[in-house]
Amino acid sequence: MAEVLVYVDHADGAVRKPTLELLTLARRLGDPVAVALGPGAADTAGALAEHGAVRVLTADAPRFGEVLVTPKVDALKAALDAVSPVAVLVPSSAEGKEIAARLAVRADSGVITDAVDVTAGDEGPVAVQSAFAASYTTKSRITRGVPVITVKPNSAPVEPAPAAGAVADLEVAFGDAPAARVVERSERASSGRPDLAEAAIVVSGGRGVGSAENFSVIETLADSLGAAVGASRAAVDAGWYPHAHQVGQTGTTVSPQLYVASGISGAIQHRAGMQTSKTIVAINKDAEAPIFDLVDYGVVGDLFDVVPQLTEEINTRKG
Ligand code: FAD
Predict the structure, then answer these.
(1) Domains along the chain?
(2) What pLDDT does 301 receive?
């Protein structure tokens, strides 16, 4: 059967959820062969096998930590040459998209980024993209080389599908492509909440929240749901929440199962980053706010009345 390369995003061997989602999509196209790189690469094998990887190619070398992106491209290109896959799937993170683009150039292949679905087609994989702030859905197929496709988080379910997951060393000859060398690393203080781009639930606040201190109302609701916290640009520009949490055209694009917007009007640039969420809930005191045009559930009311009640009800039901 045809094989499909899946680039593994992991932290010291802990496989991130978007990679497991890629394995679900890869199984539609052929047998998934996972490529895990850097420290802990071999520790990924258990989770990858559980979710359908027939093989896991691993490589570790100091260079993966010392130089940004290009050593990973060297390794993925080595895997591509060794496996001759029908497609390469990569998570749509900023790094994933750079890896995919560089790989496509080296392999003389086409690349599609930010797909929200991938299906098998008669003439090769078909990637679905959501364009122009989700006003259009496009389906595209790569016509040159081995298709390289990056897929947004939350585009497919995580499905257990036990497979062999045989681990093998990947031989990598590192090249001298233009590269950025790491000079220092410092760990970000963890909020204990899920990563914004990957979270299944995102709870966001906008200008209506009114101050940095008031964001605790949003955070408390987020914590009751195990959600990530997002913010509109107005709230970020006001200095109430860090830019890393901005949702929208110039922030992070999210596509969670549930998106809760409080005190956010629904400007086109905000919608561009959350419109593909599966279920959208908005709380706004203005019944005419544009956000209500795209919601599944809308509450017209003051967020400082509604959100604490919602949090309390969720906590009660959780017991
Ligand atoms: P407003 O539009 O001011 O809306 C606040 C809402 O809160 C109102 O609807 C009001 O009724 C409601 N409200 C007020 N008080 C309460 C209360 N107590 N209870 C309930 N509701 C209340 N924006 C983004 O978000 N992300 C981006 O990435 C982004 N990129 C941009 C890029 C460009 C090039 C440009 C030009 C703009 C961009 N913007 C972006 C900005 C965008 O146009 C809007 O200005 C911004 O999204 C507005 O944020 P907001 O909805 O929080 O604020």
Answers:
(1) 3-169 (3.40.50.620), 201-318 (3.40.50.1220)
(2) 98
